[in-house]
Amino acid sequence: MADTLQFSLVSPERELYSGNVDQVDIPGTEGNLGVMPNHSPLMAAIRTGVITVTENGAETQFFVQGGFADVTPSGLTVLAEKAVAMDALNEADIEAEIAVLEANLPKLTGDAALAAAQNLDGLKAVLSA
Amino acid sequence: MASLKELKNRIGSVKNTQKITRAMQMVAAAKLRKAQEAAEASRPYSERLAAIIGNLAASMSGAAGGPELLVGNGKSDTVLLVVSTADRGLCGGFNTNIVRKAREEIVALERAGKTVKLFMIGKKGYDQLNRLYGDQIIEFISLKEERTLHAGIAQGIGEKITAMFEAGDFDVCKLVYSEFVNVMTQEAVSKTLIPAIEGMGEVPEGDEDAQDLKGAIYTYEPDEAGILRVLLPRNINTQIFTALLENQAGEMGSKMTAMDNATRNAGDMIDKLTLTFNRTRQAQITSELIEIISGAEAL
Predict the structure, then answer these.
(1) Considering only A55-59, B249-253, B270-274, which range has the smallest mean pLDDT?
(2) Given a cut of 80, is residue A128 above it in pLDDT?
């Protein structure tokens, strides 16, 4: 039985992280979830937020926007629509995106509005952190 | 026989052309490396996504009434061909090969009595197909203005296609693009985007996880249908993005080869012209000498 988790974080452009880790905390649409080795198979949608990877006690953080987490017996793959390392995150970009989202929000209805609002909440939470 | 001056001018102009083709070759080589890296970097994502959808499709296939994007809407009368080519020429047979593949598809589909609609990405393919099938082109997108390819472009295209499908504009969607095999070889291929389940067999073998999981109990958060609803459009976007990246790498590879050939041809031409130039000059000197000698003898 493995006591580490094979974790990879991929965005459409590239693979951001790949390695054996102790724990990964994911912002799921239904709530945050921590994935540790030998987790049961799970497929979860992700909301805008921060992924925390714990490897040998050291934490690495990534900002993700939308996507999926796929937990299999062999490991965890996060397919993020957008993913950036926390250090490389540009506050001005996020502020600009928040402004655009806020301007568009009143025009949206149904699922799209919900998704946008969720996205907005996530962005604001990241910015204030 | 051309005069010495004419020959000199021609050598000069061929040399200039050679300089240009050599510069283009070097630019293409540099861009190729970048494009190749981008294409390779995007592979893990599309492979994982294909594997996940394969899993979901396997568990859904028994149940009736799966999402239309996955199982199709039960018809195949109207086919949308998404043809992706380059925006620039001077890259050998790259664009022509894709257009030829597209035309083969169109002819085969029309013979089978289907209606074909065309969605063109890239100017060169649009120009070529516009002459023959201009009235069937329902959409044309040029990526000339985009400095780098990013997922957002593919997302825009994918959303358009999904919206058209939902509006009932077509029943089946196929993507025609050029697969990057290596620098020398690009292969025009067509892939089924909608219904996704038909494209499954064409997707490269997923990793072994996919096999492991058949029959495993998967927990879905939110439910299966909810995930599929988001996942399927994203799969289309990803496939388009992959196609764009493969295309870009192929275009650069093809351009590099074409420009390499052009540079070599220009070199051959310069050699030939220089030889003729020297011969003509020699002949001129000889005839001048003969004139002087015969003039001196006449005295």
Answers:
(1) A55-59
(2) no
Quote the strand ranges of A29-57, DSSP E: 31-35, 42-46, 49-55
Question: How many CB atoms neighbour CB A121 within 10 A?
Answer: 13
| Kind of pairing between the strands at B137-141 and B115-121 | parallel
Residues 6+ apart with CB under 8 A from B27: none
CB contact under 8 A, A15 and B44: yes
CB contact under 8 A, B44 and A12: no
Please check the confidence at residue A21 and state whether its pLDDT lies above 60: yes
Helix, strand or coil, per DSSP, at residue B148: coil
- With 0-12 / 13-18 / 19 or more C-beta atoms within 10 angstroms meaning exposed / middle / buried, residue A49 is buried
Residues 229-258 of B with CB under 8 A from A: 230-231, 234, 237-238, 241
Domain ranges of chain A: 5-86, 90-128
Catalytic residue among B91, B196, B203, B252: B91
pTM for this predicted structure:
0.82
Say if CB B154 and CB B174 are below 8 A apart: no
- Can you tell me the ipTM of this complex? 0.73
Determine whether the interchain pair B221/A43 forms a contact, defined as Cβ–Cβ distance below 8 Å.
Answer: yes
Domain boundaries, chain B: 22-258
Of 1.10.287.1490, 1.10.4160.10, 2.60.15.10, 3.20.20.150, the CATH number of A5-86 is: 2.60.15.10
- Say which amino acid occupies B91: C
The token pair at B229 is 């609803």
Cα–Cα distance, B18 to B20 (Å, whole number): 5
CA angle at B166 for the pair B165 and B171, rounded to the nearest 5°: 40
* One CATH from 2.40.50.140, 1.10.760.10, 3.40.1380.10, 3.30.300.20 for B22-258: 3.40.1380.10
How far, in Å, CA of A129 to CA of A91, rounded?
11
pLDDT at B210: 43
Distance CA B47, CA A79 (A): 11
Burial class, B140, CB count within 10 angstroms (exposed 0-12 / middle 13-18 / buried 19+): middle
